[in-house]
Amino acid sequence: MTGEPDLSVVVPALDEGASIGELVRKVAAQAERHHLAVEILVVDGGSTDDTRRWARAAGARVLAQPGRGYADALRAGLRAAAGRFVLTMDGDDSHDPDFIDALWARREAAELVIASRYVPGAHALMPRSRRLLSHVLNGATRWILSLPVRDVSSGYRLYRRAVLAGIATHATHFDVLIELVTRIHAGGWRVEEVPFHYRPRRGGRSHASLLRFGVSYARTLLRMWAHRNSLESADYDDRAFSSRIPLQRWWQRRRYAIVLALLGRAERVLDVGCGSSKILEALPHAVGLDLRFEPLRFRRRTNRWLVQGGVQALPFRDRAFDAVICSEVLEHAPYDPRIFTELRRVLEADGVLVLGTPDYGRWQWRWIEWWYTRLLPGAHGHEHVERYTEASLRARLAAFGFRVLEARSICRAELILRCARGG
Known about the structure:
This protein is an alpha/beta fold and about 425 residues long. The chain has two domains: about 5-230, Spore Coat Polysaccharide Biosynthesis Protein SpsA, Chain A, CATH 3.90.550.10; about 235-420, 3-Layer(aba) Sandwich (Rossmann fold). About 35% of the residues lie in helices and about 20% in strands. It is built from 15 helices and 16 strands. It has a seven-stranded mixed β-sheet, sandwiched between helices. α7 packs parallel to α8 (about 210-230). The model has no long low-confidence stretch (mean pLDDT about 90).
């Protein structure tokens, strides 16, 4: 085969017997039906039977796994894959090659498509004990990591390879599947599930060790929890709106209500430093701007007008907007006069600026921040480099031609001002 394949199929294998050859032939037949250029990569973990010979005879390229464990085999296959899309499946006959049709049909709908055992229309033939364990694992993972995915442990998946190129995983066993789906979702990429009918392997034995997996799973879950609660997660602000922490949820919704009330009915709106905020979602006509591309990638599900850029050099013409929102941005940037001159420049003469920032002039915010940075390491609290008080912010706004029209606060800790641009 010359050129980039349409599809790479990665199959970790260990002592799968002659069934691996049948699997490879079925996969090749499915690819031929769709007129796809396909490469089939069987990653052998040190089989003592003729797995490698049967796989090669059926037309697969066999890779020798460099280390041990499922995660190592999967990483080896993903690194070697050259196709625009990469399909991963088990070599033990539990993943029906005919289902490639359903996964391939959804390839443009999401960057990761999962053959799911637990969405409506799906079914799984498993012993009762294994079914219970699987439900507990998936439910706990979904709840702890706030993932909109019901089957995080399914290994039957279709990835867009360009997404995988930017992801490094550290899991050692089957928990690599949890790490991959978490990092992909946290990167702002789309994940979709397709109902799948799962059946157990016909023969042979499972190579999973429950004890080893349990230890590895706990470590990965802890690392992914920290990742999901850090600014690296593209949906950080969106999740906070529905947080399981009552105070955080209330705070986010209070800010949402205040900002939208102060904004009024402006038609041309810019949200600077929008992140994945629900405020922007409530304004489908608004333009969202953020330094980081990942939150914009997440927010594209609800908003069309998204721009990557910084507040010091707004990429818009003079007086382009009737209103500008700049909430929870100022404290993250060292003082630069361009911040205020740019906010003023893009506003109409009678435009409104809604500006929000923690109020370091009051003990309430300092107390909240002390707890916040300890309970949620890696979150926003660690990145506050400019600490405004109400007096210092009002003085700075006046120096750049803004008039404060109204001041609101959340628990006397977060200050939100409605300002008018001077002529």
